[in-house]
Amino acid sequence: MNDPTKAPTTRREFFKTTGTLAAASALAGVAIPRVHAAGSDMIQVALIGAGGRGGGAAQNALAVKRGPIKLVAVADVFADRMQKTIGRLQQKCGSQMEVPPDRQFVGFDAHRNAMDCLKPGDIAIFATPPAFRWVHFSYAIERDSTSSWRSR
Fold this sequence. Notes:
By secondary structure, this protein is an alpha/beta fold. Helix 2 runs parallel beside helix 3.
């Protein structure tokens, strides 16, 4: 298995090889054009947890220049906090906001409704306190393991 006549790789050779591979893979990503299947390449975002950090995270996500992106659903336990965040985001990112009242969800199960607005490849931002995230991750995993939503 190991060839005793072969000298072990030095740390310098290791870093040189891995650096070359990293550079090559980075350049490969630039050189290969992105190809999309027929249909929309719009990335939809659902914000779960519309407090101060959630609003900031949504604004950061909508500021990405890599492709078309829209906020399509918002969920929070507190309606007033959610409305305040939606209003602020509407002022700053108006054209990227598409959150009608029927996609504004309030309550402890609101995360389910918000995630159900998304299709494969879309993004859910979990900006709730960490104690609640396991519930959100559990639903995302459960949703992903069922095939009923994949046809949307």
